[in-house]
Amino acid sequence: MSNYIFAPQEQPSVAVRGSSARYAVSRIYCVGRNYAAHAREMGGNPDREPPFYFTKPANALVPSGSTVAYPPGTKNYHYEMELVIAIGKPVFRVAVEDALDAVWGYAAGLDMTRRDLQAEAKAAGRPWDLAKGFEQSAVITELVPAATLGHLSKGRIALSVNGTVKQQSDLADMIWSVPEIVANLSQFYHLQPGDLIYTGTPEGVGAVQAGDLITGEIEGLDTLSLKVAAAE
């Protein structure tokens, strides 16, 4: 007999390359403005800003290869191509030199954004939840274990819309590297297995419309794709 009034939702999880087992997800953290050129295009100053974070609910996850409806409440639906870190062991207040020990694997991801709602929130000094934390806003490929891939510090990251390249950079251009992100975030949270960290996007973010096909790539990881369908 269930002790719940309503049946719990299915546990959010991500497929793992070469395994039938899945990575159960509890929390999703996102790094803002982690590439200098993107920070500038969003009106920031990468020379002065420390890392900052926002979150998405775990049930915002959607696997690469999906078709999603154009989301409600926006007329400016943007892509942001990102490297995703998967945490593999508990860590709190870890030093930078020890932080990679907590990284279990990596994936390619999209932080989909209702940019007009984000702009409104910024102007009013309000949280970004409506702009960032909506359904199907965290796209992700299969995870690749660091034990087989190694740790990522450089490599091409790119995104195309309908075959036209829109974003193109290198992971080496991140302002805050993977170990620096993990170490910094662990000063504020007890990071646990099941935590994902979207590490920020290069310059070139832009809007998509119903009918568009987004594809993305990061060296060593699976190719990402997302089809945008008409609004519900």
From TrEMBL:
PANTHER family: ACYLPYRUVASE, FLUTATHIONE S-TRANSFERASE
One Pfam family per UniProt: FAA_hydrolase
Fumarylacetoacetase-like C-terminal domain span: 28-228
InterPro entries in the record: Fumarylacetoacetase-like_C, Fumarylacetoacetase_C_sf
Lineage: Bacteria, Pseudomonadati, Pseudomonadota, Betaproteobacteria, Burkholderiales
Any one GO molecular-function label of the UniProt entry: acetylpyruvate hydrolase activity
Protein name: Fumarylpyruvate hydrolase
Positions of transmembrane segments: none
Keywords (A to Z) from UniProt: Hydrolase, Metal-binding, Pyruvate
